[in-house]
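Translate structure to sequence.
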C-alpha cells in the first residue's frame, strides 16, 4: 500500500537513469548526458575539500549540530553573501539544510496547502512541481520565452497571479534552459511581487557557474520585497554527495517572521543537517580555492562545442546557455518525422545509441518538444555523442 501523493511523484532525470541501467545490462555503453553531477565526470572534488571532511570526522565534529546549522558556518555564509552580493544577512537568518533539495521541501511544506499556488518558471526543475503537488498545492508555470532567450514572459506571469498565489519562484541560471534571467526581468518580477505582497524564492544553485554575464542576485535588487535565497555546495564546490545547502532570508520589513519560525520548527524536527559536512564547509568558505573557476573554464569549451554541434542539425534549434551546464534544444518532430514526441525520441536515442538525455516534458508542459543535454562530459566523449546523434537523426 502506498499513498496516492507518492504515486504522483515523477522525476524524469532519475527515471531515465533506470531505463539506462536496463540498456546497460544488454552490454551497450551509456553516455550520461542526463544527470547534473559534475563529480562523476572529470571534475574531481579538490583534495583540500575532501581532507576538510575527513578532518571534521576525525576531529570530533560528528554529532547532531544546531538544527539551524553550525553557528560558525552561518557566520561564514553571512560574510560570503556580503562579499559576493553586498547583502546584509544576519547569520540568524540563515538555515543550513540537507542540500537545496531540503530547503525547497521546507519552503513548499511551510507555504503551500489546500490548493494554494506556487508560481514557477516553465519549463521547470521537476522538484518544484512535485513538492507543490505533494503538499496539496498547485504548481503554476509562468512561461519562459524561448524566442527571447528563455526570458520570463512577464505578462504571462502577471496574468497567473491570484489570491491563492503564495510565492514566485525564480531559478536563474535556469535548469533546464541553462540561461540566466536578465537584471531587467528580475527587477520586474520583484516589482510585481511587491505589488501583490508576495515573497520571492530564488534558487541560486548555479550562481557561480556562469560564462559571459555576471550573476544577478535577486535579493540585492530588492529594497522591501522578501526574497528567500537557496544555495549550496553541491555544484560550486563539487560536493554533490555531501548533501549540503542553505537558505537565507532577505526580509528588510520582517514580513517573514511567522514563516521563519515555522521552517525552524521543521528543521528542529529533523535534528540537523550533516555536521561533518558543515564543519568542512567552513574551511571551503575560508579558502574558496580555484576549482570553480577551473570548472567553468572547461565547461565553457564544452558548452561551445555542444551548442555548435546541436545547432547544425536540421530539425533542431537551440538557445545558447550562459549558465549552469544544460542545453535545452527544441526538436521539430514534424520535420524529423520518425518520433511522435520528446519522450519517444529520448528512449529511442538511448536504446539505439546509448546516449542518455532527459525528455523535455519531464520539466513540465513548457518542456514539451525539447530534450535536455548536459555538457559535463569531456570533449572527446561529446564528439562521439554528437557524431552518433547526427547519424541517429539522419
Ligand atoms: C535548480 C536546482 N535546484 C536544486 C538542485 C538540488 O541541489 P542539491 O544538491 O543542493 O540538493 C538542483 C540539482 O540539480 C538543481 O538543478
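Result:
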Amino acid at each position: 500500500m502506498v499513498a496516492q501523493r507518492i504515486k504522483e511523484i515523477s522525476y524524469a532525470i532519475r527515471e531515465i537513469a533506470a531505463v539506462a541501467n536496463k540498456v546497460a545490462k544488454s552490454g551497450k555503453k551509456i553516455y550520461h548526458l542526463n544527470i547534473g553531477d559534475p563529480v562523476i565526470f572529470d571534475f574531481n572534488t579538490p583534495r583540500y575539500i575532501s581532507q576538510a571532511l575527513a578532518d571534521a570526522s576525525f576531529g570530533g565534529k560528528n554529532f547532531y549540530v544546531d538544527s539551524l546549522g553550525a553557528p560558525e558556518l552561518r557566520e561564514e555564509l553571512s560574510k560570503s553573501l556580503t562579499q559576493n552580493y553586498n547583502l546584509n544577512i544576519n547569520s540568524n537568518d540563515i538555515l543550513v539544510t540537507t542540500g537545496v533539495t531540503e530547503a525547497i521541501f521546507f519552503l513548499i511544506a511551510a507555504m503551500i496547502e489546500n490548493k494554494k499556488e506556487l508560481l514557477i518558471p516553465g519549463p521547470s526543475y521537476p522538484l518544484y512541481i512535485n513538492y507543490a503537488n505533494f503538499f496539496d498545492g498547485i504548481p503554476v508555470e509562468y512561461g519562459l520565452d524561448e524566442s527571447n532567450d528563455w526570458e520570463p514572459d512577464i505578462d504571462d506571469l502577471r496574468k497567473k497571479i491570484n489570491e491563492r498565489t503564495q510565492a514566485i519562484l525564480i531559478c536563474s541560471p535556469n535548469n533546464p534552459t541553462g540561461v540566466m534571467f536578465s537584471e531587467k526581468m528580475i527587477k520586474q518580477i520583484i516589482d510585481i511581487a511587491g505589488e501583490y505582497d508576495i515573497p520571492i524564492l530564488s534558487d541560486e544553485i548555479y550562481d557561480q557557474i556562469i560564462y559571459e554575464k555576471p550573476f544577478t542576485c535577486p535579493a540585492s535588487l530588492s529594497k522591501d520585497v522578501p526574497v528567500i535565497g537557496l544555495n549550496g555546495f553541491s555544484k560550486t564546490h563539487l560536493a554533490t554527495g555531501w548533501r549540503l545547502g542553505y537558505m537565507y532570508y532577505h526580509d528588510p520589513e520582517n514580513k517573514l517572521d511567522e514563516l521563519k519560525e515555522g521552517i525552524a520548527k521543521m528543521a528542529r524536527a529533523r535534528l540537523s543537517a550533516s555536521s561533518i559536512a558543515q564543519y568542512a564547509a567552513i574551511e571551503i568558505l575560508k579558502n574558496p580555492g580555484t576549482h570553480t573557476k577551473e570548472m567553468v573554464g572547461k565547461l565553457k569549451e564544452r558548452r561551445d562545442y555542444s551548442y555548435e554541434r546541436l545547432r547544425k542539425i536540421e530539425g533542431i534549434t537551440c538557445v545558447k546557455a550562459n549558465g549552469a551546464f544544460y542545453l535545452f534544444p527544441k526538436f521539430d518532430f514534424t520535420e524529423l518525422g520518425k518520433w511522435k514526441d520528446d519522450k519517444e525520441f529520448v528512449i529511442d536515442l538511448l536504446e539505439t545509441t546509448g546516449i542518455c538525455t532527459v525528455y523535455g516534458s519531464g520539466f513540465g508542459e513548457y518542456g514539451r518538444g525539447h530534450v535536455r543535454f548536459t555538457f559535463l562530459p569531456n570533449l572527446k566523449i561529446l564528439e562521439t555523442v554528437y557524431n552518433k546523434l547526427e547519424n541517429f537523426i539522419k
